[in-house]
Amino acid sequence: MTEATASEPDERVLGRRWTVRLDPAGRGSTAVRVSCSRPACAEQRLPSAAVGRAAAVEHLKSHLRAVAGPRTGAYCACRAENCHTHISAADRQQGVQPWRCGGAVVLAVLSDRQGRWWQAMECCARCAAATPGAKVVTTTPLPCGPEAGSPATADRPPTAPAGAPRFSDTSPPAAGRRNVPAPRSSPSPRARPHGKIAQRVVPHDLRPAVLRDELVELGDLFRAYQKRTEPDLALLADLHERKARAFTTWAEATGDPALQQEARRAEQAAATARSQHLQRTGLGADADGPAVSRLLNAPAQWEHVRSVLAHVADHSPLPGPDARLLVLMLTLRTAHTGTGNVVGQDITALGLTDPQDLLEKLTDCGWLVVPGTVEDLLASRPESPTAVTVPSLAPREDGSGPFTFGRKTRPRLSGWAQRIVSDKKLRKARATAGTHLLALTLATRTNGSGRLGPDDRGVALSSLTAAIPVDPGELPRLVDQLTAAGWLTEAALTDSHLTGRLTERVLPLTCPLPQPDRAGQAG
């Protein structure tokens, strides 16, 4: 890079850039805050993400309406940051050549796919075209100069007129070299991209232009949502609501009844997604808990888990936490028909002190029946599991049993318990059977936001000692183990209750209690 080029940022005014962000207003609330990087803009607090997104977009548009357009002499804002928006650090390490800015000065707008921030920047046409998702709002044409090859330029390199932008990271071409034509200031009409949504191409000449932009953006957002690894039903409902409004306007502008039908389908999809979101979180529309995608996503499944834990606490044939944990896991494997497949790793992974002795005691008392020996069960592998039977769980003659859930629900409940017991941080902390039982129990004794007990009152110690067969003096040690493993925070033990909150990383494993105002007080 030449000395003249290196000093470009100091010789010309730096391109403007401002960002509007959408962030949560605080934990346990659906409110959001909208902030702008420009110091004169005050922060806004709004009741929901949908309202916040609309306000953020409108705020950015107000800035774009207020500015006079891109300045001809501005230095490319993207170039000033080494073009990091379209040339990654990994590409630079692999030897990608430095970007050469060029073209007219433009105002470009870009946003992230999740709709959390929107940014406008003053940059060159090349950087705007190379930046994924960037949309050019306004363009300043390059000043016209003498044509290359004319008598005025035949013996020397072309020079830009005074005040014209010169986006380049190279020095002027040496004398005698062929001059490279400057890039075109804007793409030809045939190169104009067409948006697509719901298998429909958005006409580039659709009016009003704000409708066309909304349809194109919605198509991009729906495609981005399909690439997500985790669902966000609240976001999906917002997208369908926007689609319904946009298609209604499109139908009114074109008189196409098929577009109106698509709008009605989008309204139905929005209502369905919103309902599924509330069902997954177990919270009402006025709830103050965070949106969580839970492993068990229906309140009925949460009640089934609590019924299994209560049954095992009342019917465990052997004393002690090791036996209780083993009985619980075998119950979940055999709950529907009284018979289920088990492999040796299912038992050894529980971290029991002497699993063989416990299995022998369970078979000796008749609670468990295995086709061979206990040694064979412990040695069995996934390709040849052992079919074990718990006679007390087999259906009676009238088809009834101790549990009411069906065969499709049983593996979901078993997988939930296995996920908790095999948690990496609990295994790393060498958690005992008592600690695992406490983790399982507390996961079913929270409200929607992870606070212990109904209405944030904590869990009674009497109910914990009934579910976890340990001396009350052992509970502080178990609580400390869960805290160290990142399961529990803000924990406090009183003479009667354990209060605290499960951490965010384990919220997907929780089974919230019914709301007190709907189902009374729960233990």
Describe this structure in words.
By secondary structure, this protein is of the alpha+beta class. Among the domains are: 195-281; 299-519, no CATH class. The protein has 20 helices and 13 strands. It has helices spanning 3-6, 8-11, 49-66, 77-80, 89-93, 125-130, 209-226, 233-254, 257-281, 299-315, 321-334, 344-348, 355-364, 374-379, 409-421, 424-428, 433-443, 461-467, 475-484, 516-519, and strands at 17-24, 32-36, 44-46, 105-111, 117-124, 135-140, 195-197, 200-202, 339-342, 386-389, 459-460, 488-493, 497-502. A six-stranded antiparallel beta sheet has the order 3-2-1-5-4-6. The chain has a three-stranded antiparallel beta sheet with strand order 11-13-12. Strand 7 and strand 8 form a beta hairpin. Helix 11 (321-334) crosses helix 17 (433-443) and helix 17 crosses helix 19. The longest helix is centred in the middle third of the chain and has 25 residues, at 257-281. The chain is elongated, with a radius of gyration of 32 Å. The termini are far apart. Residues 1-10, 144-193, 282-290 and 517-523 have low confidence and may be disordered.
